[in-house]
């Protein structure tokens, strides 16, 4: 993705708050893609180096599932290497828990 001047914090670098929003979206999408949607419970970020404005690569994946909690991890990198890492816990809302159970049980015996 491209992060230009509108996302600048320190001169020439992406604002850390913008990276937090990018991580939240990417981690949540990783959970959704794994069929375990949830709401952000926690989001922890380690900023390893400044993220230059311009092209950034975002990679997110599901790490594990524990009951109604999905744990995901992500990295943001540029041509300079990994700039930041994140971990998030996403909690399936109560209204969705019954829907997922129905879907899973509906496939038994098919």
Can you describe what's shown?
The chain has a single domain, classed as Thiol Ester Dehydrase, Chain A (Roll), CATH 3.10.129.10. The protein is built from two helices and six strands, in the order E-H-E-E-E-E-E-H. It is elongated. The strands form two sheets. Strands 2-6-5-4 form a four-stranded antiparallel beta sheet, covered by helices on one side. The longest helix is centred in the N-terminal third of the chain and has 18 residues, at 16-33. By secondary structure, it is of the alpha+beta class.
Question: Keywords, please?
Answer:
hydrolase; two-stranded antiparallel sheet; alpha+beta; Acyl-coenzyme A thioesterase THEM4; transit peptide; 2 helices; 28% helix
Strand order, main sheet: write it out: 2-6-5-4
> What's the gyration radius in Å?
17 Å
Overall SS class: alpha+beta
What does the largest sheet look like? 4 strands, antiparallel
Write the H/E string, N to C: EHEEEEEH
The overall pLDDT average reads 90
Secondary-structure map:
Elements: E1 2-3, H1 16-33, E2 39-47, E3 54-55, E4 57-66, E5 69-78, E6 81-91, H2 94-106
Antiparallel strand pairs: 1-3, 2-6, 4-5, 5-6
Could you give a short description of this structure?
The protein is an alpha+beta fold and 110 residues long. The chain has helices at residues 16-33, 94-106, and strands at residues 2-3, 39-47, 54-55, 57-66, 69-78, 81-91.
């Amino acid at each position: 993705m491209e992060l230009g001047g509108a996302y600048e914090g320190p001169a020439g670098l992406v604002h850390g708050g913008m990276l937090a929003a990018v991580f939240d979206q990417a981690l949540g999408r990783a959970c959704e893609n794994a069929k375990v949607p949830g709401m952000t419970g926690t989001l922890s970020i380690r900023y390893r180096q400044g993220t230059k404005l311009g092209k950034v690569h975002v990679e997110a994946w599901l790490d594990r599932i524990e009951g109604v909690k999905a744990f995901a991890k992500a990295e943001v990198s540029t041509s300079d290497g990994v700039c930041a890492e994140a971990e998030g816990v996403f909690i399936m809302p109560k209204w969705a828990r019954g829907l997922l159970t129905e879907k899973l049980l509906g496939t038994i015996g098919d």
